[in-house]
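Revision sheet: structure tokens.
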Amino acid sequence: MEAKFTRPFSANSWYDALIKARSETVLRAWLNERWPAFAPSSLRQVAVLGAAEEGRRFVGCCHELGVQVLALCDDDPRKLGLKIEDLEVTPRDTLATLDADVPIVVASHRVLKAVQEYESKGHTNVAPLGLLQIADPDRFPPHPFYQGWLEDLVQNRERYQSLRERLADDFSRRVLDAVLDYRLTLDARILSGIVEWDLYAPAGLICYADDEVYVDAGAYDGDTIRLFIERVKGRFSRVVAFEPDSATFGRLRTRLGGDPRIQMIQAGLHRQRGVLRFDHAGTRGSTLVGEGGGPIDVVSLDEVLKGDRVTMVKMNIEGAELEALEGGRESIQRWCPRLVISAYHRPSDLWMIPQQIESLQADYRLHLRQHDGGVIETVVYALPGDGRLSGGR
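Predicted:
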């Protein structure tokens, strides 16, 4: 059976679809109709693309449920040859040996390019793992990105409609329409026309001065700081980098510690000073956890800046963005910095983060951009509303 890709949604018609559905049960039924090869009644065998944590967890679920995994593929040389549930990780080329209608599950949050690649090779059923986690959450427990995904759409459709009206430009509204279409269908191809692949560099939105003060919350190993430095051609006043993971912080310090303008803080950014639990995975997915993990320090932006000027704040902090924004209330209200805030770690972040920003500073124009082909890298850009350069008060 081939996946059905009939698309009933166009600009803003997701709202009518949500009114018609009225419940997440109906939306779940729609997904099973749209993707018959992945429906619980049909799924007997799969191939899996991606052998990172989510792929391995999915293979374990399949083993318990009696779903045959024909191949587990990844081109990462560190993963090739690993045994997962007695299944050896093989190169992606293995998928070419399978029948074209075998369901391929993309066990990654970056979906679009894989879907396009394998459909171009004749494979007729290629879908993100998120589809199964949303359509059948009892058998395939969802990643936090997908928990309550359909429930959020049904319960907050009026909030999404309101957000659409408040966005500052037509392209932002197109992005929101596409993102909500994707959430209704899990068809990554819907995103192909609105993705800007250059992360945190939306066309025509941000101009830089020579004296930027840039806060990077979730600095990882310094990759986004290096992008910032390239974009300002090395001319800036100060960078304040927050990274709580100990191993990652070590790499950050090694790579950027030679520049006295860069202040590095081994802590998470949050509402106030405290100690929380962190998984210390040493990857981009390292995150705050309720139980387990290890203790990390967290601080507020206001406490660190102590009233000092700030012109731009980027946050990608695995679901702590709302708390960190509150912890920067005084700085945001005083300096009106440009805000670059990830809005995908929880389904409700897409409407809650813009709402939180507006509660802190009503003078912002809100823009929405999508920087990858899947659930990740949906980013809210909040820019000073009167066109003045931020950080100039």
